[in-house]
Amino acid sequence: QVQLVESGGGLVQPGGSLRLSCAASGFILNNFAIGWFRQAPGKEREGVSCISRSNSSTINADSMKGRFTISRDNAKKTVYLQMNSLKPEDTAVYYCAAKRRSDVCYNYGMDYWGKGTLVTVSS
Question: Which terminus of the chain, N or C, has fewer Cβ atoms within 10 Å?
Answer without folding.
Answer: N
